[in-house]
Design a protein that fits this description.
Blueprint (H helix, E strand, L loop, with lengths): L2 H14 L4 H8 L3 H8 L7 H11 L3 H6 L5 H45 L5 E8 L3 E9 L4 E10 L11 E10 L4 E7 L7 E2 H6 L3 E5 L2 H4 L9 E8 L4 E7 L1 E7 L6
Antiparallel strand pairs: 1-2, 1-10, 2-3, 3-7, 4-5, 4-6, 4-8, 8-9
């Protein structure tokens, strides 16, 4: 399809009808710049405009797409070739446009997803150490819940591993802040099987999902967190140690590139 030939043919027919570009544009519902682009062979009218244009210029669509008036012997073959060429170009434009739209939608959804999850996931390290206990673990925040994992609660008292190490009848371990008890674990009576404090703590693993985040625990409470260890020894003496946990941010998805 020769766009330049078609353009010259459109200009010729327009002049034969004594129409300016502005007058022709007004009749078929486009602007004069569009007519100019057709006549200079930059592009071709859309399918709907082809029929309106051919009507105003008083020619057949096949003549218009041929860039000349064709006789009946050539009309069928020429028209089929022109239509096939036009359909191919139209399909090509459609495929290109569809591809651009798909990639644009993917890009938009990626941006929306990135911003909707920006800085929503954080991981914090937990540690504590004094002359009695060592504590290690971590906290994971995400938009739905908080996961508190404390796998290491170790008794390091000077009598650990000796005959003087406390033997425990009952114990309770709680995770608290200044306003709420977040987690509570207790064994009210192990007197039939009294255990060493170090053994009990080695068997204690905190792995707790907190789903009611706004009311119980949030990032503002991160530096107000205690592990409370209470026990009653074989002599029915009670001991309580409130361990102020040290919390450090290890990771947060607040970067677009890592």
């Amino acid at each position: 399809m020769d766009l330049e030939k078609i353009g010259k043919f459109i200009a010729k027919l327009r002049k034969e009808q004594n129409l300016t570009q502005e007058e022709l544009a007004e009749r078929i519902g486009v602007n004069a710049k569009t007519i100019s682009k057709w006549e200079t062979g930059i592009n071709l009218p859309d399918s709907i405009l082809l029929f309106n244009l051919s009507k105003e210029l008083k020619v057949n669509v096949q003549d218009l797409l041929s860039g000349e008036k064709i006789n009946n012997e050539k009309i069928n073959k020429s028209f089929i070739n022109i239509i096939n060429s036009y359909i191919f170009k139209t399909k090509k434009k459609f495929i290109i446009l569809s591809t651009i739209i798909v990639f644009l939608l993917i890009f938009i959804f990626s941006i929306i997803y990135t911003f909707s999850n920006y800085n929503k996931t954080s991981i914090y390290d937990i540690n504590f150490s004094n002359n009695l206990y060592e504590i290690n673990g971590y906290i994971i925040f995400n938009p739905q819940k908080v996961l508190v994992i404390i796998p290491d609660i170790i008794y390091v008292g000077e009598d650990s591993g000796t005959n003087n190490e406390p033997l425990i009848k009952r114990y309770t371990i709680s995770l608290e802040n200044s306003e709420n008890t977040i987690y509570h674990m207790t064994d009210n009576d192990i007197s039939d099987n009294i255990k060493l404090l170090s053994n009990i703590l080695n068997e204690t693993k905190i792995n707790y999902n907190i789903e009611n985040i706004p009311q119980i625990f949030n990032k503002e409470d991160i530096n107000d967190l205690y592990l409370v260890i209470e026990y009653v020894d074989k002599n029915d003496k009670s001991f309580v140690t409130k361990c102020k946990l040290n919390i450090y941010k290890e990771f947060s998805n607040n970067k677009f590139i890592y």
